[in-house]
Design the sequence.
């Protein structure tokens, strides 16, 4: 039995339609992203109360936690795009897979870096081999693996499929890696280290955090759509519709 | 053309692949020795690098032996499918009426027999060189025996993904090493527990579970990866 997909889904699968629909969404998404990030950042950095123990240094949480969220979610976006590409052989899914990898890797680096900056005043060192740090580092390696694998293939189509398989393997492995690192850490846990529990935060602290997380999700979506559109233009450069767009843009400039 | 009654069944084809790959490995015996020598040399480097103090070495020995064994297994991973890909027999294998799943599994098992198993058998010697405490040797043997199977299975995914490239080498290591982490954590965890005289059956149970999981799921990913590399 054939599943009836809405027309919308099929349209997103076509590069040309994705370019158009994405182009329509993009200004709104960018505006909303800037608004959320601005509100969240000002609220979190200036108006949220100071932490009893950590003072002002805890405020890096407003960058660190959203970045870490996106880092993990980005991997699943990539794997999902890979699955779609393998199952339905959609061109756009291939491109999403390719474009999601560097953004996700960048977010992972941001999460690791902000974690290190936060760790210095809190734990006294830049780096602690605790469960979360280690899992994030491994996640970065998984991203880098995808990136390296993609770039070593000459044919984009083949590269996307191979990376889709690797992303799916990684998806199966991420929970296993996370759990095993967690288990490893509880075995070696030094008594001095205590991580702030998110649930014990006061409402005035986590409300701006929620805004920031929403803002980061939108930022991710905006960046991804923009990157995908650019890549679509490049790959479809020999088609008539891209030539029309380019000609149009050229005539406007004149 | 063979009639339908003359086509070998899955079991025969798998046994045939096993026999063929074992024979090939036997004809190139030198390749089996190289990872072992590599492991010996790396283990020798550690006392030279950090000093010959027995207590320090004994403390880091369990993890060290596991890491060295892991790297030794990784060395030959790149070439699991390479020769068969280049001479075209891999393509015939995947085109054959028998399921590629079992044929690929057989090839990985042979790879384990000529890489993981010898490294496992040599591991106690490596432990001895690093003055590992006596309680660690049994968990070391058992954990490596099962652990190296999953290492071969996971490594073969990397080999399958990169088989069409001219040079896999470092790329395979880059892809595969992060996926090795859970196996290594529980493997070395069991050895550490054994050295300290604590029970280690829990870690071994998880390790065997991981091995079963890898042996069942990895061939799916490997055949998928090989097929993608085939359609040129």
Sequence:
């Amino acid at each position: 039995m054939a599943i009836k997909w809405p027309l919308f889904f099929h349209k997103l699968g076509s590069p040309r339609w994705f370019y158009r629909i994405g182009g329509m969404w993009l200004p709104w998404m960018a505006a909303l992203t800037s608004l959320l990030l601005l509100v969240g950042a000002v609220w979190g950095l200036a108006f949220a109360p100071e932490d009893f123990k950590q003072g002002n240094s805890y405020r890096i949480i407003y960058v660190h936690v959203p970045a870490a969220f996106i880092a993990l979610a980005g991997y699943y976006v990539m794997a999902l795009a890979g699955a779609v590409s393998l199952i339905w052989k959609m061109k756009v899914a291939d491109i999403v897979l390719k474009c999601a990898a560097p953004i996700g890797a960048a977010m992972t680096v941001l999460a690791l870096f902000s974690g290190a900056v936060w760790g210095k005043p809190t734990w006294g060192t830049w780096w602690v081999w605790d469960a979360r740090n280690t899992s994030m580092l491994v996640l970065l390696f998984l991203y880098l693996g995808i990136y390296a694998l993609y770039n070593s293939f000459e044919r984009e189509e083949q590269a996307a499929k191979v990376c889709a398989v690797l992303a799916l393997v990684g998806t199966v492995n991420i929970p296993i890696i996370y759990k095993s690192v967690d288990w490893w850490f509880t075995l070696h846990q030094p008594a001095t280290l205590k991580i702030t529990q998110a649930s014990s935060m006061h409402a005035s602290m986590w409300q701006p955090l929620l805004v920031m997380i929403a803002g980061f999700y939108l930022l991710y979506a905006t960046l991804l759509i923009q990157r995908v559109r650019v890549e679509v233009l490049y790959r479809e450069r020999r088609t008539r519709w891209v030539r029309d767009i380019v000609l149009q843009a050229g005539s406007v400039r004149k | 053309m063979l009639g339908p009654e003359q086509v070998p069944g899955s079991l025969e084809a798998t046994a045939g692949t096993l026999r063929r790959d074992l024979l090939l490995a036997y004809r190139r015996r030198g390749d089996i020795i190289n990872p072992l020598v590599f492991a010996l040399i790396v283990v020798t480097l550690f006392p030279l690098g950090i000093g010959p103090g027995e207590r320090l070495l004994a403390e880091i020995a369990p993890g060290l032996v596991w890491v060295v064994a892991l790297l030794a297994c990784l060395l030959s991973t790149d070439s699991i499918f390479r020769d068969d890909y280049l001479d075209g027999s891999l393509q015939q294998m995947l085109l054959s009426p028998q399921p590629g799943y079992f044929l690929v599994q057989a090839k990985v098992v042979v790879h384990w027999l000529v890489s993981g198993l010898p490294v496992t058998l040599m591991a106690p010697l490596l432990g001895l060189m690093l003055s590992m405490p006596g309680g660690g040797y049994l968990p070391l043997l058992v954990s490596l025996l099962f652990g190296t199977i999953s290492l071969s299975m996971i490594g073969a995914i990397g080999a399958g993904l990169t088989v069409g490239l001219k040079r896999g080498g470092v790329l395979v290591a880059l892809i595969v090493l992060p996926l090795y982490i859970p196996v290594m954590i529980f493997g070395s965890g069991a050895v550490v527990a054994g050295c300290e005289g604590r029970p280690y059956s829990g870690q071994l149970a998880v390790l065997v579970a991981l091995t079963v999981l890898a042996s069942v799921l990895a061939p799916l990913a490997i055949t998928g990866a090989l097929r993608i590399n085939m359609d040129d």
Remarks:
- Chain A is about 80% helix and 0% strand.
- The two ends of chain A are 54 Å apart (CA to CA).
